[in-house]
């Protein structure tokens, strides 16, 4: 070979890697024009070696269509082998979800996909997907002509396991407690305790072992990135199939409970360390870290919820409250905290009263997002939790103001020495004042909150304050400033690693653009809001987006479209849990339906019944802006019945409830002008004042109707 161009292939070198390396080195020294192509689960370590890692096959995202899924090599391979095992099999709308799940859970590993496809001779594709929790037992039948170590999934990994040194085996099996990977410091803290047959390895020794497992293709690695950039510490991750195998080995070694307890302690510490810093200018970096650790945090909380100890479950759930809320995962937060409370009781264990109170408050705040059969928090438990949270002066105590709707719950925190708490108190107070129709004080509080969060570098708090300020500005008629506030809130969301596709800002933007005479832009924003609410699983916000789209159709004269859309909104609202938000929307939907049916020429009696229902729901809700909206819709009905005096009284009552005109609403301006023209200035003012003086304006309106 010395004088020739030769390609030499050495296949499957991992079990003879030392000998293969020495042979390759000698051959290359003797034959300079020789090229050696070696396949192995670890590098040969020869001078001049170029590594070409063979990655698993690419897998699609959940929810992909059959056409998009088949464009990924993992699905294409599975489909080909499945059709051979079961003639006629195809990836279609009925099978695509199960196929994608199989490909993802098997990490795109070709042999695993082939073995899974072969099971279709006896099972449906959905049955295969549902049994992947026992993948090593399920994928136990390969071709008879294959080498023994390639016949089953377990045999493939057994082969690699048998080639490991003992310390590598210890680390590999202990790494199985991590879900989604681990950094070197976390791997050392969790895995190095109680090392068998010797002293615990230091971080350098653990890093060497991780590198060796990485070289042997039993781990992969990635870098923690922020804002699209790869930076920060390396994360080491087991493929799920290897993790399942390693977890069996961990149990066999009798180390499962000890290692799981160390993992739980580590992630309780991480979450509690990060929680207060999320209210500082370190927010963005810490959110990226917590996002990367979500699998581990979930696994730790699941373990503590089902097996205890209760203290760790409560501490971890409470510490995760803030990142859950920042990320808009309120339903997830509610489900976790409700599960922790269901498992460990509504009576706080000694020493963890504060974290227990935070879990109770979070479960109550997020109750509207959960299933309607969720177990309610008893009033006495809720009262005790609020009292405990207030005494602790933790920011979650501010939730008391949102739950009670009274300014007094937020005011004690306005002068708090913690500037973040002061800014948050102004935001909460501004929301309460806005809901109570006190526009001036609300604006003062909200502008102070914006300034406070901006000075602290808290992007999330700033975005929340800007969105709430935009809601207020939309009422005062400052549409341009409101849209600018929403645009900046979107920028802050992107800065936090989000997509700016959050439902509430898009709802507000759609409403503003509709009022500014931009129906196409409004429809685009509202459609995006509906899609974002659907992705978040928030049925209340989905209903709000559907209501807004139907209202846009009504305002643009598409009455048949508006009627069908609003009836669909009503159909979806009726089975939802009885919450204030649902009551608000029911009142607004009935008013919208009344206005639509009036314009379609339906009998006044039928229209009046809808207004009566809307007035009743609005009064029951107690929400002053909603009551004002419903009374303004009723005023339009009165004008159509040639009763402008009743209409003017309703408008006066609405003005008092909201704390001013909804200056951004062109329909309201037209209605005010029409009532004034019908009555004359003096009579209009008298009716207006009479309406403003009514303590319960819905009652006479319902009686008159």
Structure overview:
Among the domains are: 1-52, no CATH class; 66-156; 587-705. The protein is 66% helix and 4% strand. It is built from 35 helices and five strands. Strands 3-5-4 form a three-stranded antiparallel beta sheet. The protein has a two-stranded parallel sheet with strand order 1-2. Strand 4 (220-226) and strand 5 form a beta hairpin. The protein is elongated and about 110 Å long. It starts with 5 loop residues before the first strand and ends with a helix. The model is unreliable at 144-148 and 226-230 (pLDDT under 50). This is Winged helix-turn-helix domain-containing protein. InterPro entries: HTH_77, P-loop_NTPase, TPR-like_helical_dom_sf. Residues 164-251 form the Winged helix-turn-helix domain.
Quickly describe the structure.
The chain has 705 residues and is mainly alpha-helical. The protein has 35 helices and five strands. α24 (479-495) packs antiparallel against α25.
List keywords for this structure.
705 residues; mainly alpha; 35 helices
